[in-house]
Automatic annotation (TrEMBL):
Necessary cofactors: Mg(2+)
GO molecular function, one term: heptaprenylglyceryl phosphate synthase activity
NCBIfam families from the UniProt entry: GGGP-family (TIGR01768), GGGPS_Halobact (TIGR04147), PRK04169.1-3 (NF003199)
Protein name: Geranylgeranylglyceryl phosphate synthase
Length: 238
């Protein structure tokens, strides 16, 4: 079974951002979250990635890197694996297969046994990731569901990621993706900032991803979102 099948909650650390004053990666690992993903769109370098992976990898929690370009991939025994995005609704094929081809061409240390893909559906047109990938975010619930179905059944993706980075998403669209998936795991990320928003999104998605909150508000706020996710699962086991 894949690691993520058991995850209710992920903290995503952006190596280009700092933690709240006085907080450490050990505190982040102790929030009760199930895993740490390390990735961001803007300002990513191998050096920043390595610094965060080294710091997070010391704690007893799965750590996966999520590179936004081939140059930010780091190899180390400190992390558990690599989650490589493929953007279903990208306007530029670079973000579907192009960057992947280049990465494979230039990197001779790829460990396929620890490398997996995430099929992103990018939904917030104002997020850097939308600009970066030239995503068409103007999608209704039917289209989101169809992208999710294509990801699972045509492209064989194990993870579908509805990405509202920076804003809380439309639950109807998240639910549409959830309903259509058979075995793939649904990640939801974007705008989760408290117990209630976490619980609501976790009622639809298998796993919620909390990003900016850890940088802006800190670990106490993150702990509330962990509770929200766990309560949603306890109410309606999936
Ligand atoms: C082939 C390799 C190794 C890399 C390419 C991987 C791809 C397709 C990247 C596309 C962009 C993407 C989906 C990045 C994942 C990380 C992510 C979505 C971060 C959140 O981005 P924002 O919140 O918009 O950005 P900032 O917080 O940096 O402003
Ligand atoms: O930063 P937020 O809005 O929590 O989004 C989380 C994650 O989906 C970003 O890739
Ligand atoms: Mg962000």
């Amino acid at each position: 079974m894949s690691d993520w099948a058991d995850w209710d909650h992920i903290v995503k650390i952006d190596p280009d951002k700092t933690l709240v004053d006085g907080e450490t990666f050990e505190d982040v690992a102790a929030t009760g979250t199930d895993a740490i993903e390390v990735g961001g769109t803007t300002g990513m370098t191998e050096e920043k990635m390595k610094r965060v992976v080294d710091a997070c990898g010391k704690h007893d929690i799965p750590v996966y890197i999520e590179p936004s370009n081939p140059a930010s991939v780091v190899h180390s025994d400190r992390h558990d694996g690599y989650l490589i995005p493929v953007v279903m609704n990208a306007g530029d094929v670079t973000w579907i297969t192009g960057a992947h081809k280049e990465w494979i061409r230039i990197d001779d240390e790829i460990d396929w046994s620890r490398t997996f893909t995430e099929a992103y559906i990018v939904m917030n047109p104002d997020a850097s990731v939308a600009t970066y990938t030239q995503a068409n975010c103007d999608l209704d619930a039917d289209e989101v569901a169809a992208y999710a179905e294509a990801a699972e059944h045509l492209l064989g993706q194990d993870i579908v990621y509805v990405e509202y980075s920076g804003m809380l998403g439309d639950t109807e669209k998240v639910a549409a993706a959830a309903d259509i998936l058979d075995d793939a795991t649904l990640f939801y990320g974007g705008g989760i900032h408290d117990y209630e928003s976490a619980r609501t999104m976790a009622q639809h998605a298998d796993t919620i991803v909390v990003g900016d909150l850890v940088h802006d508000e800190g670990v106490d706020a993150v702990r509330e979102t962990v509770k929200g996710a766990q309560d949603a699962k306890a109410e309606a086991p999936q």
